[in-house]
Amino acid sequence: MITLFNWLFSGLLILIVLPVGVLFVQVLLAWLPARSLPSAKSSRPRVAVLVPAHNESSVIVATLNTIGPQLLEGDRLLVVADNCSDDTASLARAAGAEVVERSNDRQRGKGYALDFGVRHLASAAPDVIIIVDADCQISEGFVERLATCCIDSGRPTQSLNLMRAPAGSGLKVQIAEFAWCVKNRVRPRGWARLGLPCQLMGTGMAFAWRDLPLIDLASGHIVEDLKMGLDFCRSGKPPLFCPDALVTSYFPRSEEGLTTQRTRWEHGHLGVILGDTPKLLVESMAKGNGNLLAMTLDLLVPPLALLTLALVAALGLSWLVFLLAGILAPALIATTGVLLLAATILLAWSQFGREIISFSALMYAPFYAVKKIPLYIGFLLKRQVEWVRSKRDDN
User: Whose C-alpha in 15, 57, 88, 208 is 20 to 30 A from the C-alpha of 297?
Assistant: First the structure.
């Protein structure tokens, strides 16, 4: 009986430690010099930039002002004012954008807004459609780099998507910025070193128009970007990471905005991990789809705070079992996982996080993880399954 328990408990701990191994490999590969994308082979394609917006009057003009100057004759800039009760639509028109308004209380969510915008664009379809969220700023040359990369590769293309901590933010938001950097910059860069695909990140995404029938945009899925990336990969179009194009936004200053945003992201991610990854693993191995397997392994890595909590809990339980029953293997596995995670985080911080957070502030991360326990309890007791917009700082 003890031997059976040893095997079962050790197997469970290996499953918990597996995501740490994936994360370590990604961070280690990211340390290598970034792979240069090949020079553009094609001329710049005709582009439509689609901006879904729900009550974004406080930020929409600033966003459009970064997009407009990068567009050429024949390009389109379309704002979908989705179920808006403010003046988002009129402000967008005044800023020079084409605007369509959508009102549907039953079908709420970004996916429905994107589908509405795509159907509007179909009358004069572009070569490439780029999706930019209404609260984002794009870097110089963003449109040309992303659109050309998409056309030349023949694959959906994801820009580098970073979120910044507003000036004067506390340690909690600084740690969140570092965790975001690891997720959206370090990990995709590591996988790209092996020629592997990245997840789609919701904003700064480019798709060839001819590829849009491969996915179903009209969805209220809480993490529609993850779903789209996996659907593209299943169809032989694994998303490509394009770090030369940068899109940025800011974390909300308000506690309410932060909580809403984190709950949507993390409950959605955890829901996909529990609901989809087993069948994705089976499908990818059965079909010999290495790109889908790589995306699934990446998907298995939970938020850093949850990974930390799970490993610490496993460490304590495994050593308790050792003290009570003398079973050592699980304790060694859990200890290895904790040490590997600590080494991975330090490795990521030393190369990519020094400008974001100090080493002393990074030491606060375990306490930050503890404060997120109610969020994960909420996932078990009352999981968020519908899309909810994050509250902006001034509305």
Answer: 208
Give domain limits for the chain: 47-278
Which residue(s) pair with 160 in the sheet?
A: 246
Give the tokens for residue 21: 């191994």
Confidence (pTM): 0.90
Chain segment 176-221, per-residue pLDDT in tens:
999 999 999 999 999 999 999 999 999 999 999 999 999 988 776 6
CA distances, 76 to each of 26, 68, 72, 98 (Å): 37, 9, 9, 8
213 DSSP 8-state letter: G
266 close to 275: Cβ distance less than 8 angstroms? no
Residue whose token pair is 């079909």: 287
With respect to CATH, is domain 47-278 assigned 3.90.550.10? yes
Alpha-carbon distance of 210 to 135, in angstroms, equals 27
- Judged by phi (left if over 0) then psi (alpha if -120 to 50, else beta), residue 60 lies in alpha
The pairing of beta strand 76-82 with beta strand 47-53: parallel
